[in-house]
Specification:
single chain, alpha/beta, UDP-n-acetylglucosamine1-carboxyvinyl-transferase, Chain, elongated, binds uridine-diphosphate-N-acetylglucosamine, binds phosphoenolpyruvate
Length: 420
């Protein structure tokens, strides 16, 4: 079984370049199903999730050529509308094929999607929205079956919560619908804006992405396009925290600081300095003071991202005092707590709240990456810990961090991946 071994308490230095965003590239790859033409994507990260979604597209009949960081997709021969269970149960984002396939072919069959076990993650908003666009939906033991009689019809859709995935699915479905769709209480994440930019490059008419009201005027057909994926704000934030917890000075390049404002604010509040340049951020910690405790409440964008909660918690394990974390997005996103405790962290959980009372030292231990961001949190903790930490269940980390070992080694970390 493969493990990562980290020897802690090394100071990091130098630069690390951020890859394209996992959460932007997945819906954008799926969006290419809306056209028969060729689409070219640049800055596509080499991730297990990207491999999985491209296999889903190929299983539907698409031609996918994925060389380096460029992906060329041709959808002329897409004919199937059923996604195989083996892929869908691996990855949450596979639910996004519903919108494009319904819009282009009038039907789609999908088993219930998998992904990290961070919550129940229902898809009611996706389904309700598709019904409002005219689809008929039937659920049985094989999964979800959706059909439309002819073209979908534009409609007003109000999302009970600003779901990222539902906003993306409905936005894609509405591009080929007859008439105007308004998505109210839409998610405002940068990845939504990136998807809207791709759709508009394909000839769609999507306005207001990045605000809570998105207006889509349906068009008859979409054509091929080229698009460069935005940098991964969560990967960037994870490296900044690795720099801060090891009291290092590191520069994170190919990133957009504006997408990470709440994380940068909290880092500064904790005593770290973040210098923002065009497309780069440098974190630096001067002096030997303990980290100041800061409270974190996860919220939809532009609030503090849930995908950075566990990494920030790892950082707070060494604070001088108590930091309160409130997780408002997912009901089971404290799985890293038990693992951090094995490293000596003092954390109490009460429902949606975790109270982290910092200790002066963390210790290396044998831990597991219980989900993607939990894995990142454990690496961050391990970099600062005394002794050696062994991290297992790496398939979660492989979903979302490109060349993790290579990038940390470049920063001077003592980190290896071994087969034990
Ligand atoms: C591939 C991808 O982009 N994943 C991201 C996406 O996940 P994902 O799109 O799955 O997350 P959502 O924004 O949909 O989920 C937010 C909340 O809405 C709830 N909900 C969602 C849909 C629905 O039909 N009904 C419902 O109740 C969820 O249970 C959750 O409590 O946004 C999350 C929130 O920023 C991130 O943590 C994930 O990294
Ligand atoms: C939860 C995440 O991803 P997914 O929605 O793909 O499970 C994540 O990126 O932290």
């Amino acid at each position: 079984m493969e493990k990562i071994i980290v020897s802690g308490q090394q100071t990091l230095s130098g630069e690390v370049a951020i890859s394209g965003a996992k959460n932007a590239v997945l819906p954008i790859i799926v969006a290419t199903l809306l056209t028969e033409d060729r689409c070219t994507l640049y800055d596509v990260p080499r991730l297990a999730d990207v491999q999985t979604i491209s296999e889903v597209l190929q299983s539907l009949g698409a031609k996918v050529d994925y060389q380096g960081h460029t992906m060329v997709i041709e959808g002329a021969e897409v004919s199937k509308t059923e996604a195989p269970y083996e892929y869908v149960q691996k990855m949450r984002a596979s639910v996004l094929i519903m919108g494009p396939l319904l819009a282009r072919f009038g039907r789609v069959n999908l088993s219930m999607p998998g992904g990290c076990a961070i919550g129940t993650r229902p898809i009611d908003l996706h389904l309700k929205g598709l019904e409002l666009l005219g689809a008929t939906i039937h659920i049985d033991e094989d999964g979800v079956h959706a059909e439309s009689n002819g073209r979908l019809h534009g409609n007003d859709i109000f999302l009970r919560v600003p779901s990222v995935g539902a906003t993306e699915n409905l936005m894609m479905a509405a591009t080929l619908a007859d008439g105007v769709t308004r998505i109210e209480n839409a998610a405002e994440e940068p990845e939504i804006v990136d998807l809207a930019n791709m759709l508009n490059a394909m000839g769609a008419d999507v306005r207001g992405a990045g605000t809570s009201m998105i207006r889509i005027t349906g068009v008859d057909r979409l054509h091929g396009a080229s698009h460069t994926i935005i940098p991964d704000r969560i990967e960037a934030g994870s490296y900044l925290l690795a720099g801060a917890i090891t009291k290092s000075r590191i520069k994170v390049t190919n990133c957009i600081a504006d997408h990470l404002r709440p994380v940068l604010d909290k880092l500064e509040e904790s005593g770290a300095k973040v210098i923002v340049d065009a497309e780069a951020m440098t974190v630096e910690v001067i002096g030997g003071d303990r980290i100041r405790p800061v409270n974190i409440k996860t919220l939809p964008y532009p609030g503090f991202p849930t995908d950075m909660q566990s990494q920030f918690m790892a950082y707070m394990c060494l604070a001088e005092g108590t930091a309160n974390f409130t997780e408002t997005i997912f009901e089971n996103r404290f799985m890293h707590v038990d693992e951090l405790r094995k490293m000596g962290a003092n954390i109490q959980i009460d429902g949606k709240n975790a109270f982290v009372t910092g200790t002066p030292v963390l210790y290396g231990a044998d831990v597991k990456a219980t989900d993607l961001r939990a894995g990142a949190a454990l690496i961050i903790a391990a970099l600062a810990a005394e002794g050696e930490t062994t991290i297992g269940q790496l398939h979660h980390l492989d979903r979302g961090y490109e060349d993790l070992i290579g990038k940390f080694k470049q920063l001077g970390a003592k980190i290896e991946r071994v087969d034990q």
